[in-house]
């Protein structure tokens, strides 16, 4: 693998890691929940899109992608209202939330396996062919993947910065009690944050399906990587997650090219430990409400 291939791989992986990790960071930053079902919801997005394309209406990739997003948002809102919100009435609810979301991950996995079977599913890329960059052939789908991932990140940042709902999310993230005192409906914000989080991770599951296929148990690796990215970037910081995603993606590309793919996660963890020894909050961490 030459330098051009490393750059291409790092950019592609970094863009997708960014989408997955920002979803996990968003919900933690807003409601201080570490959602262990994040990876299973990533897989769910891929399966919903596959069903819309091949098991039901027979939609195109683009229409299936767009139709899946509001479904995923609804799933997130329902999960927050039905599973997470009742836990907040009790002491140590955050520990309980971890256990509930962990159990939810297994429920989703087994439900998908029951509905779709254990075999992997494939979604073909909506664009074929490739172009040559400095003597290296890059598939057009990977280029589209980068642009679509960046578009999702930009739209999220604009939503948080420019809309009233987005500013409410930032207010709750910075000061929960203060936000409630000025009239912000914090429960609605929690639901909105989890809904957006599920949209982001599910969208990544759809975008990566043509490359990695879809499996009922395929969400644990994305979740683990998203978790490392979020801790590296700083718990609760979406921009920290964005920065960490690209740093670790390029590190992974270099490690895969020089040592082998089996060393990518150990390299991530070593760098994470070094960063946390220097900056315990991560790169741009926000711990307090």
UniProtKB/TrEMBL annotation:
Membrane topology: Multi-pass membrane protein
Family: Belongs to the binding-protein-dependent transport system permease family. LivHM subfamily.
Transmembrane segments: 6-26, 33-53, 59-83, 95-116, 140-160, 189-211
Record carries keyword Cell membrane: yes
Keywords assigned: Amino-acid transport, Cell membrane, Membrane, Transmembrane, Transmembrane helix, Transport
Gene Ontology CC terms: plasma membrane
CDD domains: TM_PBP1_LivH_like (cd06582)
Name of this protein: Branched-chain amino acid transport system permease protein
GO molecular function, one term: transmembrane transporter activity
Compartments (UniProt record): Cell membrane
Domain of life: Bacteria
InterPro entries: ABC_transp_permease (IPR001851), BCAA_transport_permease (IPR052157)
Source organism: Celeribacter neptunius
GO annotation (BP), single: amino acid transport
Principal cellular location given in the protein's record: membrane
Pfam families in alphabetical order: BPD_transp_2
